[in-house]
Write the structure tokens for this entry.
Amino acid sequence: MFSVVLLLIFSGLVSGSEVAFFSMTTNDLNNLKSENSKSSQLILSLSKKPRQLLATILISNNFVNIAIVIISEIVIRQLFPESFFMGMAERIVSWIPAETTTIANISRFVITVMGVTFLLVLFGEVAPKMYANLNKMLLIRFMARPLSILMQIFAPFNKLLVGFSDVIENRLNPMSKNGSFPSKAEIGQAIDLTVSGEHNTKQEIDILKRIVKFSDVSVRQIMRSRVDIVAVDLRSDFQTLVSIIRESGYSRIPVYENDFDNVTGIFYAKDLLGHLSENNQFEWQELIRANVLYVPESKKINDLLTEFKTQKMHMAIVVDEYGGTAGLVTLEDILEEVIGEIKDEFDDEIELEYKKVDDHNYIFDGKTLLNDVCKVLNIDSETFAEIRGEADSLAGVILELHGVFPKQGTELFFRQFKFKMIAVSTRRIEKILLTIHPNEKINQST
């Protein structure tokens, strides 16, 4: 009986190890690297061999479970003598015509299976895996050495099992024969190595890297926010409409009724060409095109580009989770994510609201999108992913980082970046001085 308990404990530790090892996050691995201890190095070594580790866990668990079944059979024979099962069989035979010996053997088998299954499921699977979820690193440190020893013991079985799984994987997925697909980071490194050797290739490198990350960009990252959209009220007169089109220079203007959450259509400036001589009583509303494309904030821009192409449209209204208007996105916004800023004769020389003080100091408007900030600073678009939360603008990142609305003069730090609030109104963060300290990591504080 004592041996069954020991085997159940070992089975539980091995099962819990599977959950613990394969739920380690990047932060967990980074913490282990920073420790630089023997135990952390052993854990990192095991994590680099996921297939061999999994094979070791599965083989060990199976051997232990088989041993539990065999020993449990012996224990049950000792606890319940043959006469016990024969007496049970005789009572059953009085109801069902069958051989007493057969019924006795079936009864012993059912009791053994039910008992062992209950013990294995509860103490060998469910309880250990619940514990592993709550005390992941503690279990990993405790089981690292035993699993390392077991991996060496079961090395021939591991090789056979991993090789067999590779054969099956190659059969099911022929593309995996050449190895796993490279990550976006690896593709980016390959672009640097391949193209950077040539002269004047910075623009080409940037375009290729943007193409690689194209499918990861969401609409909310590139959209023009609601407060910056030029739109016209359905009840506006003709002269007001003409003035808005002239001042904005846009070829398409959203039309709303009562408020911008109720966009009724899109007005095309070219539709005015035959009506420029009309008076203020002209009913321009008849020229509105009602086919408005609505897209969620979370939609990826590669999917939106396909939708623009199939529906032959150049503009979409971005809606939030509550159905309200969050912003506006155009075909030009999507293309700029690949080829960079597009400027025509109607664009201002400087579209982004920022000022470069020197190579390390920039003054940004709070509403500037993070994507645009990263482009100006020439840094990776995922630089602020750790702190951005649901924010898309620089002001949003400040609120995520600080937790409360900052006062003017407040300074915040993240990695090598310092944010100083230089203009704050009662409702908005107007201006932010962003300072970059190269090759220096500042502790995050407020």
About this structure: Residues 354-445 form a domain with the Uridine Diphospho-n-acetylenolpyruvylglucosamine Reductase; domain 3 fold (CATH 3.30.465.10). The two ends are 60 Å apart (CA to CA). Confidence is low (pLDDT under 50) at residues 442-446. The longest strand covers residues 259-268.
